[in-house]
Amino acid sequence: MEQNKTRFYLIRHGETDWNKGGRYQGCTNIQLNDAGREQARLLGERFKFLPLDVVYVSPLDRAVATAAPLAAAHGLTPIQDAHFREINFGEWEGHTIAELKEKYGKVYIDFFENPFDHPVPGEGSFQNAMDRALEGFEALAERHKGQNVAIVSHGGLLRVMLVGLLGMGDEFYRKTWMTNTSVTMVDVMEDGRKLLMTLNDKAHLEMAELFEKGEEK
């Protein structure tokens, strides 16, 4: 007999100009750009066809703006939760990888190659970020048993959280990616098992692109 499950939709926010420019955003409160707002709209259209009971969101504006359309599709009000804000990169925020390599040299390169083994300004470590994300997730898993829960957050934080949720090795972080407004689905079973059902699902963006190409022909 299939167990009852709690379904989590883990969603990265829409595109910003800093995303487009390859800049670390962290806790800097960057807004969605036009492309990001359109991605959020398409995400909302997708969620009209998916069951959803509650929406939690990082307090940062880019996540709040992304959560609004999908919550509205179900008449929900997103609940801000600081457990799911992005990793704080401190003085590294606003810089590209190339700029950080030039400015900080080995300190940054060591972090980039093995992020769980080296400190990061602001948050202190990826372990700190993982601990707060898992604390938030486990609280929601207990509070919303048997429901469908969306968490609209950030690529870095969600990938770090996945490492902890699935008990994967630290290297898993560098072997995953989450596109803006992609949906990663995790089911929590009655016995506590956590199953990764989808990763980086961006069907709403891909379908919109196909329709656009079809109209151009």
TrEMBL record:
PROSITE patterns of this UniProt entry? PG_MUTASE
* Entry keyword set: Glycolysis, Isomerase
User: What Enzyme Commission number(s) does the record list for this chain?
Assistant: 5.4.2.11
Q: Name one GO biological process term.
A: glycolytic process
**What GO molecular function terms would the record report?**
phosphoglycerate mutase activity
Q: Where is the active site?
A: H13 (tele-phosphohistidine intermediate), E86 (proton donor/acceptor)
Entry binding sites for substrate = R12, H13, G14, E15, T16, D17, W18, N19, R62
Q: Which family does it belong to?
A: Belongs to the phosphoglycerate mutase family. BPG-dependent PGAM subfamily.
What is the protein name stated in its UniProt record? phosphoglycerate mutase (2,3-diphosphoglycerate-dependent)
